[in-house]
């Protein structure tokens, strides 16, 4: 029986994902930004997302994973409107937490945190019929702060354990924002392993922020997926080429089916202040990175390992945990 993937329009067969962007955002900022009219306007957010999705579809994108959690500015009404518009792009939305763990989770037991995530996966988000299909975690500089039982590090670790338990129960994958230069994928995988998680269901994101092939090889060697999900944007051509070449290096090392591509982009970005609208924020991978890989020797079938099969692998591993 085919594995089903939950999207904002309902479940689809995993074979229907097609070219999938692994880490994107319809909008991002904070969980309360919709209450500040000078920051967030739903009609504007809807209009730019519809155009950006149309451009992504025209470029060949068939699916994307929106890793915006409630505390990063996930807007369920926007998700509903985009779902109703039927853009032709499958969108998987996320439950989970971002890098600044909300106060109401501080000190909570991992099972309590897992219960919240499971509710958004199995019942719906904020009383709607939209259900999350993936779990997002974010480990950043806060992980360095480790004083006392309420430290940011302890909260992040409890959330990771809660996420692992929810992932196993619901059979959904986990995708992680990390600081690659701090090698934060390693302690995350250690926790997931302790919790009995199949590491093939885990994506260690922002991994192309480092040039350390030894670190990346160790993460992939443990079975996890590498999110090479920061491509394009404001970076110059030389930086984009470095990031494309890094993907080829991992292919050459035998991990091509464990690399996923994306932009960490949004056409309506409110993180770090209001940023200029970029309607092509989701086209860099299909129009630039994929052609670069093709020009440097990879076949279309090999490239599909990064744009399609690597993501499918995480969902299939997650579904296997639920069945197991």
How does CATH name the architecture?
Answer: Alpha-Beta Barrel
Mean pLDDT: 96
Shape: globular
Count of strand segments: 10
Structural class category: alpha/beta
CATH H level, superfamily name:
Metal-dependent hydrolases
Count of DSSP helices? Answer: 9
User: What helical percentage do the residues reach?
Assistant: 40-55%
How many domains, as an integer?
A: 1
Q: Spans of 5+ residues with little confidence (pLDDT < 50)?
A: none
Into which percentage range does the β-strand content fall?
Answer: 5-15%
Major β-sheet annotation: 8 strands, parallel
CATH fold title: TIM Barrel
Major sheet strand order: 3-4-5-6-7-8-9-10
Brief digest:
This protein is of the alpha/beta class. Helix content is 40%, strand content 13%.
Mind sketching the topology for me?
Layout: E1 4-7, E2 10-13, E3 20-24, H1 42-59, E4 63-66, H2 76-85, E5 90-96, H3 110-122, E6 134-138, H4 152-170, E7 174-177, H5 185-194, E8 202-204, H6 213-221, E9 225-228, H7 237-252, E10 259-261, H8 284-295, H9 300-323
Parallel strand pairs: 3-4, 4-5, 5-6, 6-7, 7-8, 8-9, 9-10
Antiparallel strand pairs: 1-2
